[in-house]
Amino acid sequence: MLFTDMLARAARANDSLLCVGLDPDPTRLPEPWRGDASRIFDFCAAIVEATADLVCAFKPQIAYFAAQRAEDQLERLIAHIRDVAPQVPVILDAKRGDIGSTAQQYAREAFERYGADAVTLSPFMGFDSLQPYLAYKGKGAFLLCRTSNPGGDDLQAQPLAALPGQPRLFEHVAEMAQGPWNTNGQLGLVVGATRPDEIAAVRARAPRLPLLIPGVGAQGGDAQATVRAGYAGCGTAVINSSRAILYASASSDFAAAARQEALRTRAQLNAALPAAH
Ligand SMILES: O=c1ccn([C@@H]2O[C@H](COP(=O)(O)O)[C@@H](O)[C@H]2O)c(=O)[nH]1
Q1: I want to staple 33 with a disulfide (CB 3.0 to 4.6 A). Which of 39, 85, 184, 229 is the partner?
Q2: Which residues line ligand 1 (CB under 6 A)?
Q3: pTM of the entire structure?
Q4: Catalytic one of 59, 95, 137, 139
Q5: Mind listing the pLDDT tens digit for each residue in 17-57?
Q6: Dihedral of the CA atoms 80, 243, 209, 126 (nearest 10)?
Q7: ipTM value of the model?
Q8: Residue 95: active-site member
Q9: Which CATH class is domain 3-271?
């Protein structure tokens, strides 16, 4: 099944725009697992089981696993998601970007080793650095466009004086992704919830692309303004929250607390949807 179809089906089935981010930090695991990196799988598996019926996607962030030499736990976790939530797509947040021959290896890692349905990529090196991922038909690729961090301004907000209309760099990325780069309908864009006005600027340039929107929850983005700016019917919004859900409680009730926070966030996002969607 195509990534975009899987995403739309999960969003409909679970009535949800919420993506739960899996960013397991051993120092924040509940007692008695705190500090024990060998419990990353157990922690994330419990979160997945507690929220599987509330989400449109899961987004494991690869750095949290690789930094702990826990790639084997990431493999097990994605296999576990397939078992307990086969309808929910997995977006591997890896933010890769490299020349074609190296990108082939990264694409193989994401789609063959881990079996992800989509991956996040930096578009900074241009179209040929994206092509190896697009060779995996049906898989998705979300390009960093307007990121949620303050330093996103340093490059992304700069106008490209050489282009007609002098679009800002992130606007140009959106136009390329909606147009000539999207050879097989596999692309989406990453835009931060910390900048709802700019989500709207991206949506205007990319009306049909799925937007992956991190930044609600721990980063303080406005969830409802994000939905209003990012949701466009055919171009869906996948709104990620990681720490606010993962660490809703530091005690043994962490999975139940994560479920409550996911329920609360899903309701908040749905409240901002237009009446007939
Ligand atoms: O612009 C971006 C791109 C990616 N991220 C990632 O999303 C999550 C956010 O985690 P929270 O705990 O909900 O803040 C994290 O994995 C980031 O690497 C982002 O925040 N902003």
Answers
A1: 39
A2: 21, 23, 61, 93, 147-148, 190, 192, 214-215, 217-219, 240-243
A3: 0.98
A4: 95
A5: 999 999 999 999 999 999 999 999 999 999 999 999 999 99
A6: -90
A7: 0.99
A8: yes
A9: alpha beta
